[in-house]
Amino acid sequence: MQLRRSLRATLTALPLAGALTAALAMPAGAEPPGIPDPATAQTWLGELKVGPEGSMDGYDREKFPHWSEGADGCNTREAVLKRDGENVEVGSDCYPTSGTWNSPYDGGSWTQPSDVDIDHVVPLAAAWRSGAAQWTQEQREQFANDLEAPQLIAVTDNVNQEKGDQTPDQWMPSETGYHCTYASMWVASKHKYQLTITEAEKGALSTALGSC
Questions:
Q1: SS3 for 53?
Q2: Are 76 and 118 spatial neighbours (Cβ–Cβ below 8 Å)?
Q3: How far is CA 65 from the centre of its chain?
């Protein structure tokens, strides 16, 4: 077994509790919502502001409150586990008691939720360096728990840990057939939240979208 383990208006327009409820109602095995088609992703990529990354000064993961609880008492991690898994059954505490999770990043398949991480497609630290340092904590919480954009996905835990806070010019999923989708998700998230990209990042995304 592998090793375990505008902007304010845009963000506040997505009530967190409502998003959690909507995600829990989705059928098991669903992809993250809001993945644009390749042509749209290319257009959005061209609309992103290009600039150097900001610093990590002041960054703290706790400035992005995540796995927030919805109105039904289930948190964001539990919502994504239910959404992205197959035949998922949950207990009264919302935690999965059974199911299968297929990780599109590496092709791994898991039956224990403890083997699965919820990846922030655009990592929290990468978001900080590309504009989120200027947000309020409320805005960062919306970003870290967004169930209506392709920003959260269940993947193999150690693959997520390997990715860390790297951008697409530094890391891409080992499943090359998923590069197009991954790039589309990344672009959609950065476009929605008006985050910047670097020249290297834009080049890697363009190459990935060219493989679609």
A1: coil
A2: yes
A3: 14
